Amino acid sequence: MGSASELVIPFLGALQAAVSVLLTIFYGVVTAQFNLLSGKAAKEVSGLCVRMLLPALLIYKVGSELQQGTALRYLPILIWAIGYNLLSIAIGSVATRFFNLPSWATPAMAFNNTTSLPLLLIQSLEATGILSAILRHGDSASDAVSRAQSYFLINSTVNNSLTFALGPRLLRPGDEDAPDEEGNNEGGERGNQGDQDGQQERSQTDGYDDIIDEHTTLLPRHNVRRANAVGLDTWKIGKEQWERLPQWAQNFLGTAYMFANGPLIGAVIGAFIGLIPPLHKLFFNKVSEGGYLNAWLTTSIKNIGDLFASLQIIVVGVKLSQSLRNMKKGEASGEFSWKGFLFITCVRFLIWPAVSIPVIYFTVTKTRLLNADPMLWFAMMLMPTGPPAMILVALAEVNGSPEKQKMAIAKFLTVSYAITPLISFAVVGALKACESALTT
Fold first, then answer.
1. What is the pTM of this model?
2. What residues have CB less than 8 Å from 153, skipping those under 6 apart?
3. For the domain bounded by 10-178+263-439, which CATH number is listed?
4. pLDDT digits (tens, 9 = 90+) for 200-248
5. Hey, which of 154, 172, 195, 211 has its CA 20 to 30 A from 115?
6. Domain extents for the chain?
7. Cα 150 from chain centroid (whole Å)
8. Cα end-to-end distance, the chain, whole Å
C-alpha cells in the first residue's frame, strides 16, 4: 500500500501540472474561437513573451537567488544544462534524418520545457507535501521550492539561449513545407541591407505626409531626418570596420551574435544585479533595509515576468484553434507525425530519466562536485525530462516558418502535454534517489 501511495502522490502532482497546462491551452482555443485574439496578435504576443516577459522573469529570479555566496552552486547546473542539451540536439538531428521525421522534430527533441512545466510541477508537489521527504534539517518548503525554481530557471537560460541560437538552423533543413524558404531567407538577408540603405536615404529627402498611420513618427521632421542621417553614417562606418576584420574574427563574432538573445541578456542582467552586493540590496532587500527599488521597480519586473508562462501557452491554444478550423474546412492544418511523437516521448519520458537519475545519484554519492542541497539533486535529475518546450511556437514565429508547420507544432505540443503525467515515474525515481543519497 505504501509503494502505491508513493506513486499516486507524484502522479497526482504531475497530473495537476499537466491539467493546468492543458486548461491554459484550452483557454487559448476559446480566446481564438471568440475572436478575442487573432493569429497576428498571437504572433505579436509570442514575440513579447520571448523578448520582454521571459527576460524580465530571468532578471528577477536569477537576480534574487544569485549572490556572491551562492554563485558557485549554479555552476554544475550550467555544465549539466549545456551537456544534456547538446546531446539532445545530436540525438534529434540523427533521428530526424534516420527516421525521415519532419524538420520541426529536431528542435522538439532537442529542447524540452524548462520553464513553465517545471515551475507548475514544483508548485503542485509543494502543495501535496511530497517534497518534505528531501528537505534539509531546518529548511522550509517555501525556501526549498524557491531554490528549485531558480535552478530550473538557470537551466532555462541555457536552454532558451541554445533554442534561439541554434533552433532556426534546426528548423530549416529538409523542410518540406517551405522548399524555397532558405533561399528566400538568404536572398532577403542579402537584400535587407540594400533596402535599409535605400529607405534611410529616402527618408532624408521624402516627406512624411504620404502615409499617416499608427507608425508615423511624432517627432519634428527635421529631427527625424537628422537622426536618420546619423544612423546611416554610423551604419556605413560599422560596415567598413566589419569588412576590415579577418574572416575568423567575422565568423567568431557572427556565432557570438546568435547567442545574444533576450533570455540570455535577461539572465546576464540578473546575474550582474545579484553578484554586486549594493545592487542586490537596492533591488531585493526590504525598503527598511535599503531596498529602495524593491517596492516599485523590482515588483514591476516580477509582475510582467510572471505573465510569461501563461501567455506563451495561450499562444499555443490559438495556433491549435487555427489548426482545428482548417481541419474542419478541409484545408491544410499541419501534419501530425506519430512516428516523431512516439520517438520523442520515449526519449524524453523514459530514456533521459533512466540516464539522468543514476548520473546525478552517482555524482552525489561518489564525488563532492555537488553541494549538500537535495533540491539541487532533484532538480538536476528532472531537468532533461518532460515534453518539448512551448517556446517552439515562438521559435517558429521568429523563424518565419509556414503556418501549417506552426499548426503541426501546436498539435504535437497539445498531445505531448496530454501525456505529461508520465513524468510522475521520473519524479518518483528522483525522489527515491535523493532520499537514498541523503542516507548514504
1. 0.72
2. 57, 58, 61, 62, 115
3. 1.20.1530
4. 444 444 444 445 555 555 556 666 677 777 778 788 888 887 788 888 8
5. 172
6. 10-178+263-439
7. 14
8. 26
